[in-house]
Design a protein that fits this description.
By secondary structure, the chain is of the alpha/beta class. It has 14 helices and 14 strands. Keywords: Hydrolase, Metal-binding, Metalloprotease, Protease, Zinc.
Length: 396
């Protein structure tokens, strides 16, 4: 919600008027001179949207506040009403509405287009969430990274690196939505107040690493060439892509990292395939290059990569993980009911690379149970486990 600065206004006044932490107002208006607001300047108020009310015969400001369940002082401020005693029939009043419901829903498969629409809604309501484009997919789709919080402690997460594991994208974005909603409404999550986490920790998230692959699984072969002909050839002519994990070029993005890549490359297919092809070398695909650079540009204390399926938490790699990894994995297991497993016969994954390069905790979270792509009927259960793990990642 945008409002216009009036004489005598300050961010502290807005904080009191709209019952919001001052830091959220500062972060929602990053290019603003906070000490000297200019009359007529536009200020973004997070966690609110604007509604409209047409004055009818007999209306007063007091009756309107009762009818619409809005705050009188907020209405007066938004509408610059000089005489609260006098309203004109037909006059339009701006009404502030605090957002109290989640914006992220999951009524249909979660395509890149659906995610873009959700991101637009999230940023509009919660402008303290920072969005950036860290690269582009093979087909030119932007790879979005989001961050929330102001703390020196940085936690990195990513999802939907495998195409038929697209259900992880709305799962992690739902948590981001719930986190922002809790902060702006002064609520807790699982008994924990969220504002201290916001001030102490920065959560950074790439919700859909493989948008081309996700759209391939959900929508079928693209119309653009040469992508259409290539994926149909790789998929033996079938337009059914439920088993597809790779990017649009048939490279498995979670087998592209320089963590014993040479060992991994000889195990799977030696040419583009729906899954398990490691590519001709590590870090050849634009999606992986972008994710790796984003990781290198930040100082993450630990990272989480969300996959499906199995209800397990992988936390080790070649015994290179630090001692604290086991304790963190145990906490993730406690809040989710998932099984912590130190390692499996897997190399060249994102978690593997992070552990190997920085000797810091890295985790692969396998959400849900069954055959990918998991059905939306599982998502509520999946979300409960994922939300517990994501919350724990902020305090561990």
């Amino acid at each position: 919600m945008n409002i216009v600065v009036q004489r005598g206004d300050s961010l502290w006044k807005y904080s009191q008027l709209f019952d919001l932490p001052l830091q959220l107002l500062i972060d929602s208006n990053p290019n603003m001179q906070t000490e000297a607001l200019q009359i007529g300047q536009i200020i973004r108020i997070p966690g609110y949207w604007l509604d409209y009310y047409t004055v009818a015969a007999g209306d007063t400001l007091w009756s309107i506040t009762n009818q619409t369940n809005t705050d009188l002082d907020q209405i007066i401020h938004l509408n610059v009403i000089t005489n609260p005693q006098t309203l004109t029939i037909g006059q339009t009043l701006l009404l502030p509405r605090r957002v109290t419901e989640l914006l992220i829903t999951w009524s249909k498969p979660y395509s890149f287009e659906t995610m873009q629409a959700d991101l637009s809604k999230l940023i509009a309501i919660y402008p303290f969430i920072v969005q950036e484009i860290i690269g582009y997919s093979v087909m030119g789709k932007p790879l979005y990274a989001l961050s929330i919080g102001q703390g020196e402690k940085q936690v990195g997460m990513n999802a939907a690196i495998h195409a038929n594991e697209w259900i992880t994208a709305p799962t992690v974005l739902r948590f981001l939505n719930e986190y922002a909603l809790a902060i702006t409404n002064g609520k807790s999550l699982r008994g924990l107040a969220m504002l201290p986490f916001y001030l102490q920790t920065t959560l950074a998230l790439v919700p859909m690493v493989n948008p081309d692959g996700v759209d391939l699984v959900i929508n079928g072969a693209p119309s653009e060439e040469p992508y259409r002909s290539n994926v149909l050839k790789i998929n033996n002519g079938s337009n059914q892509f439920n088993g597809w994990k790779a990017n649009i070029r048939g490279v498995d993005l979670n087998k592209q990292f320089p963590a014993l890549w040479e060992q991994d490359a000889v195990k799977g297919p030696q040419q583009p395939a729906p899954r398990d092809y490691s590519g001709t070398a590590p870090l050849t695909e634009p999606e992986v290059i972008a994710l790796a650079k984003w990781t290198e540009d930040n100082q993450f204390v630990h990272v989480l990569a969300f996959h499906t399926q199995g209800k397990v938490i992988y936390w080790g790699f070649e015994q290179l993980e630090p001692p604290e990894s086991e304790a963190i994995a145990a906490e993730f297991a406690r809040v989710s009911g998932y099984v912590p497993i130190r390692s499996i016969d897997s190399t060249a994954g994102y978690k593997d690379w992070f552990i190997m390069k920085w000797r810091k905790p890295g985790f692969t979270i396998e959400l849900g149970q069954g055959v990918n792509p998991l059905p939306l009927t599982q998502i509520d259960e999946i979300y409960e486990a994922a939300a517990g793990i994501m919350l724990a990642a902020l305090y561990e």
